[in-house]
Design brief:
The structure holds 2 protein chains of 2 kinds. By secondary structure, chain A is α+β, with helices and mostly antiparallel strands. Helix content of chain A is 17%, strand content 20%. Chain B has a 5-stranded parallel β-sheet with strand order 3-2-1-7-19. Classes of the chains: A alpha+beta, B alpha/beta. Chain A binds chain B through residues 19, 21-22, 26, 29-32, 34, 39-43, 45-47, 67, 70-71, 73-75, and chain B through 17, 24, 27-28, 47, 49-50, 53, 63-64, 67-69, 71-72, 75-76, 305-306, 309-310, 331, 333, 335, 340, 342, 381, 383-388.
Chain lengths: 106, 419
């Protein structure tokens, strides 16, 4: 099982086991990672599962699609490595991926 | 006398978005007592909105819709029992009764019973079992068969021009069905959007080849000789032959258990800002509940995923000893064709509508104003403006209509003026 490391804004770190085929957001929710809110449960409609993907892993995941890119544009803390974690599928390739979380998802 | 009643266990009736979020939030908040979730359906809690979208179109299988995996509930120490129907709540004994026998005792009880599809009440459906080709869309059990029946060339009649009906129309047209939408009111989405937005969606569906009939109340459902299938739907003006009929005519909150045990119920189980019912040991969250909104200064029953999650978090926070009042801005979304509609706030009572962008370019946001304040907005393919509007509605911001409509002034700058 690939593992994913979520780092909260305050520096608290959580390493979670993620099931391949599910989304990075789901892995966070299943492990009660507080910095991921996921208000729409994964429909790419709310922008509250925002994470900053460590650049080392960014190249290993498919780029954001049109719907995701459009949502990202509206986020307050947008960075070049911003992604909506509900749109990233867990694969063996992302084992060890580090996702930093914003101060607020709203 | 009843030893088991001295339990600190939390029993949740229902296993949808609200129930699943509640369980997660309880554990995240450090609550360690046992939690038992009882769901009538055969499945673990799953995402409901895709049932009329990605699940129906075949893009998303059920497994992808599960909110949390079985292993996740197990790990957090939450027992989820599926296929478990609760028939009564005994508040004095603090226990619930199960259909297949037996009781479960609770320390605190959470009603997350959701709602059910409103059945059609029209001539032709009395005294017969539901015809095999008449469907509703609320659960996976409803949506699975519909998905299999979306065959090219089939004649689909959709009763109800609301979100569910229009989303199904969108998927069905892509699959090559002949689609007719019947709406009893003078326009689509009449209860939820401005006339401009209704007209926009009517045109979109028309251009996609959907036959839209407004002011078309269903007079009669005509069944075949044995009554087993619908063969046609009758309105005042037309008889429309049908291979498949889908009714999306609203939802009824599941409040019967609450009513029968004497809880306050008024268009949903009446709760406070902490999701607590008239019995301090019973909470109600999600579609089945009716909560006070400080923002709109009235009580609301919302059929919405974000509302279900927010109320679930409020109930969990209270039980974890750190109560936080729930007063989030209501919001909703609907995906049809290549259009993402995101709506924030409630537009009832608006006296002015201001649109930014052009409807013809399929990218715009319409603001609803009441006495100069922004009370709601509908965004089509404008997620960035939607997120800004969410903040503006939360403040009931007062912004000059000319500024709202002026594309050269970013909405974000309007926000700065408010804050």
């Amino acid at each position: 099982m690939p593992k994913i490391v979520f780092i909260e804004h305050d520096g608290e770190q959580r390493e979670v086991q993620a099931e391949a085929g599910r989304s990075v957001m789901q892995a966070a929710v299943e492990n009660a990672v507080p910095g991921i809110v996921a208000d729409c449960s994964g429909s790419c409609s709310c922008g509250t599962c925002h994470g900053f993907i460590d650049p080392a892993w960014l190249a290993k995941i498919p780029a954001a699609g049109g719907a995701e890119s459009a949502m990202l544009e509206g986020l307050l803390e947008l960075q070049p490595n911003s992604r909506l974690t509900c749109q990233i599928t867990v694969t063996e390739d992302i084992d060890g991926m580090v996702v930093r979380l914003p101060k607020s998802q709203f | 006398m009843i030893m088991q009643s001295a339990t600190d266990r939390i029993v949740v009736i229902g296993a949808g978005h609200a129930a699943s979020e509640f369980a997660g939030a309880l554990r995240a908040g450090g609550f360690s007592a046992p939690v038992l979730m009882l769901g009538e359906e055969a499945h673990l809690p799953y995402q409901r909105p895709p049932l009329s979208k990605a699940f129906l179109s075949g893009e998303a299988p059920l497994a992808a819709l599960e909110l949390k995996s079985a292993a996740a509930y197990e790990k957090m120490g939450v027992e989820v029992r599926t296929g478990a129907r609760v028939t009564a709540i005994d508040r004095r004994a603090r226990r619930i009764e199960l259909e297949h026998g037996g009781y479960e005792y609770y320390g605190k009880l959470v009603l997350a019973t959701g709602g059910r599809a409103r059945p059609l009440a029209v001539h032709g459906l009395e005294d017969v079992r539901k015809p095999a080709n008449l469907h509703y869309l609320r659960t996976v059990a409803d949506a699975g068969p519909v998905r299999e029946l979306l065959r090219p060339g089939s004649r689909l009649v959709i009763i109800g021009g609301g979100y569910v009906g229009l989303e199904v129309a969108s998927v069905a047209r892509k699959r090559g069905l002949e689609v007719t939408v019947l709406e009893a009111l003078p326009r689509l989405l009449a209860r939820v959007t401005a006339a401009e937005i209704s007209a926009f969606y009517e045109r979109i569906h028309h251009d996609a080849g959907v036959a839209i009939r407004t002011r078309a109340a269903v007079r009669r459902i005509e069944t075949g000789p044995s009554g087993a299938t619908v063969v046609a739907v009758h309105t005042q003006d037309e008889v429309i032959a049908a291979d498949l009929v889908l009714a999306g005519v609203g939802q009824i909150p599941n409040v019967e258990l609450a009513e029968r045990c004497g809880l306050a119920v008024d268009n949903g189980v009446v709760v406070d800002q902490h999701s607590r019912s008239s019995d301090p040991d019973i909470f109600a969250i999600g579609d089945c509940s009716n909560h006070p909104s400080a923002l709109y200064r009235r009580r609301l029953r919302l059929e919405s995923v974000p509302n279900a999650l927010g109320q679930a978090r409020a109930a969990a926070a209270t039980l974890c000893g750190s109560p936080r009042a729930y007063d989030a801005v209501p919001w909703f979304w609907s995906d049809q064709y290549d259009l993402k509609l995101q709506m924030v706030g409630l537009s009832q009572g608006h006296d002015r509508v201001v649109t930014r962008g052009k409807l013809g370019e399929r990218s715009f946001i319409t603001f609803y104003l009441e006495a100069g304040r922004i009370i709601a907005a509908d965004a089509v393919n404008r997620p960035k403006d939607f997120l800004a509007a969410k903040r503006l509605v939360g403040e009931l911001a007062q912004i000059a209509p000319e500024s709202l409509a002026d594309e050269s002034r970013p909405l974000q700058s309007a926000l700065c003026m408010v804050n």
